[in-house]
Structures are given as C-alpha cells and as structure tokens.
Prior knowledge:
Radius of gyration: 24 Å
Strand order of the largest sheet: 1-25-24-27-21-20-16-3
Largest sheet: 8 strands, mixed
Strand content: 15-25%
Oligomer: single chain
Amino acid sequence: MNIMKQMSAIFAGVVGVTGFMCSMAVAGALATTAAAPAGEAGHAENGTAPKTYQQNSKESPLAPTLLKAPAYNVTVEFDTRAPAKAYSRMIFGGFLEHFDNQIYGGVFEPGSTLSDKEGFRLDVIGAIGELRVPVIRWPGGCFVDSYHWRKGVGKVRQPYDDDRWGVIEPNTFGTHEFVALCRRLDAEPYICQNGLADIREMADWVAYCNATSGSYAEMRRENGHAEPFKVRYWSVGNENSGKEYIERVRDAAVAMKQVDPSIQVTCSGAHGPNARMDPYLFQTAGKQLDLISVHEYWVANYREFHTPDYLTCMMLAEKPEAHFAAAIKSLEEGGARGRIGIAFDEWNLRSWHHPGFSGHQPRKVDYVDPEVIALIKARDKSLEPSLYTMADALFCASFFNACLRHADDVAMANISPLVNTTGPLFVHPKGIVKRTHFHTMWMYANLLEDRVAGASVTANRLTHGAKSVAVVDAVATVDKSGKKWAIALVNRCPSDPVDCFVKVGEKTLEGKFEATVLAGDSPDAYNDIEHPDRVKPEEMMILIKDGIVKLPPHSLMIVRRKAE
Length: 564
C-alpha cells in the first residue's frame, strides 16, 4: 500500500455527502487561549487539554455568532493514488543582509543588556529558533558587490564605505560571527560571494571556511577557529547578469569546487517579474551549478513607497505559482531540470524601501549631506507596524504552498529579510515583535509533515477590480507511515467564512481533529510594541462533520490528525 493509500485508510467507515451548505458564519475574534509551544500542540498553556468544539457549535471560538450562510463553498480533494513526495525543509530558510538594522541592532548588538558576551541578541536567536530556520543566506544581497571577506576576519577589522547602501560598514560582524550565529540556530550557513571580485578571492574564501590544511586553514586557526566551518552552500554573485558574468560563474564554480568538491554552487538566474533565465547560462556554466537563484518581491517599494490594501495584496497571492512555473520552464529549455534545483533565495510580499540608492551601482557617498541623511531616514517607512497585516501572513502561506506543490524542483527558499525591514521579526532596543508572517512561518515549519500529497481545489474566485484569485488555497502533508497528516487551508476572503468540503481519496473528513488557526480581528490586524499578540496562532480541537471544515475570514488553518 503506498503512503497516500495508507493515509486514506484511516478514514474507513466515513460517510460521504452530496451537499455541504451550512448556516454557520464566523464573526468576532478567535479564542484568547495562548498558542501551544512547538511540540505541544493540542495542550493549553496550563497543561490541560483544550476544549473540543463542534464547528457549528455556538460555543466554538470559530463561531461566536450565527449570522448568515457562507458566501463561498470550496471542495478540496487529496489524491490517494499517487505517492506523496518528500519536500526540502530548506524552503523555510532566511536571508540577512548588511542593510539598515538587520545585522547591527538586529541579530548582533554588542553592549545590549539583551545580548550575550559575544554580542548576539538572545531574544532574537530564541525567536528565530522557534521558526526552525534550516539555512541562512548572507551577507547580501546588493551589499556583497563591494564586500571583501578578508576585512571581516581577524582581531583587527577594517571598516569601509559601503557605497551600495550609503553607510560605513564596521565589519565587526564577519565570517566567524555569521557561522557562529548559524550554529546556534542549527542552520546551514549559505555564503553569497562578491560576484565582481577576483575569482581567486572567491576560491580563497572557500578555503578559509572549509580547508583542513594549508595557509587559509592556518589563518582561520590563528583567528580562533581550528576546525573547518564546513560551509556547504555558496553563490557566485547576487542579481548579476550578462555574458561576462556567466563566464565568471563558470570559472569561479570550477575554482571553488577545486578547493572543496563537496560544496553546492548557485548563481543569479532570474530577478524581478520576468523569471526567464538566460540560455547562455546553462550552455556555459550549467555543468558546474547545483542550484540557481530566483528573486522576487511582489510589492516593489524600492523607490516609491506603496501601501496596498489587503485585497490588492491578495490579488498577488498566485504570482509565486506563476513564477515557479516560468523558472521551471527555463530549466527545461536549458536541459537542466532535474539536475539543477531552484533556490528562491530572496522573496517577500514587499521589498524594503531604499530611495536614492540603486543597490547595484557604486556611488560616492557624503555621509553628512542632508539629502543622503534624508534618504537613509526614509528607510524607516519599512518599519511601520501597520504594514504587516493578515495580507502578509496569507501571502506567506500561499508562497509556501507553491513551494510544496513544486517540491521536485524547489530546493531552497529564503525569506528576505529574516529580521527587521520587511521581515517577519521586528527587533527594537528593548525586545522583539513577531509580525503576522512570523506566525505563518512558525505554523508551516512546525506543524506540517514531511511529505506533500497531490491536491485539487475547486473554488470560487475572489475578485478585486479586474483581478481575481481562488478564494481558498490548500496543501496536504503526510508522514512516512501515512498515518499522520496535516492540511493547510487558506481563506483569502477578507470578510466571509468559507465552507471547505475536504475529501481524502473517496473519504470525507469526520471526527475530532487538532487545529491551529491564524486570523486576527480584521484583515488589517497587525502586531506592534504595545500590542505584540494581537495576531497569533490559536490552538483548539474541532469536530468535523460530513467533511466540512469551516474557515474564518482572512485566515490560515492547519488541521492535523495524529497516528492512532
């Protein structure tokens, strides 16, 4: 019996249904019980089991009032005939760049009462640890185009003018500090090379990190680390393109793998709304590459600052799916599909704001110029708490669902950034705030099983002007045994509940299930310093009848069934 047939077997004896209209509507806030810590799902904060609710019960925190029939009805069917596919946990990765306060005043703040003696913010490390981030890309980003790694190692660091972002880079956070951060988080370090640097410089950085003998191994030992760092993932440059760059990728990859044949090498493949990759890249460097980088931010705040409303953001929720499809088509056309995986190593709904600095062209910076000071100050717009609403949370879920559906091709994804600017974790001098999409990441990283099943969704379209998206998005995951599974259901509608009729093979869901729900009291709900828990996951037990799962408006729900 294959895995999905085993999963289907647990529903033996369940009664099928032909109709599924229901008069329950979801209104008001969710229950205020605290979310259970990772590994303790289904238990309230005081250690007692949460109350079980029938989904059409007036007592249910999902239905405090009965108002009207749901505006949408959706069917989600999971295919039990095809085997479930393993997916890479690397899709839950992160990215840190030396921009604004991602590093300094973010993960690294020597002298803070919240930091340890090495300068790492312990509250930040604790929060990132909750996300089980498996890989972190660093140090850029556009920053890397003027970065030279030797200045950031050793006892005497060499500050320099960071002309990409218009600040002075102190270099107190370098290779050793980055690897130490990753090791604390049990995350793989992923280093992005200066794609404009000499190829020898790139190969030497690999030797400094990974060599067991020789001058660079001795240099690393003298700088306080005798054992190799064993950095596995390396990128040749960031968002570069053109014939000269592609040939540099080929030569750099060869030189780097001569130092350490075990490393995996990626390079810039596609960045921006056009996911097409240059065929010359595959012809010239394809044999040397293991991964290829794809970047996109769907709300482009680089120059002009946009504050699109919830529905405008939801109209972008199917864009990641289209982006993956276009990237995969390029891999197929280049004869590289199945051999080279996709590393979507910069992604987010919103890009951060940096007017006046292209990030790609060096410029002379006068640090006391009032215009430069004003441009740098303008970056604070990205820190406005009210930006990060349920739109960010549900877009994040849609992105992960697209990764899971393309598990054969997607080897890695890195939210950009992990900390501050537009990232899921906001860090301030006195603490942290977990933004709405932090909780989405936590749910996906902690509640899903390790294989993804085939699924089809039949849903109405949610419209906004001339655009539309499916009102519900869904994926199902299952463990190796086929007995434990978790279904992620996203209701994008801002105001109406959805009756979601779920079938696993020929069986419908029936019985008691664990559920985790992320919603908030409005689609525009957000967390800030004064109200850090306005939006957070809620744990509960639900009773499902006739296969109908009732989804609150603007919500993510993960329904789980443990092995019996």
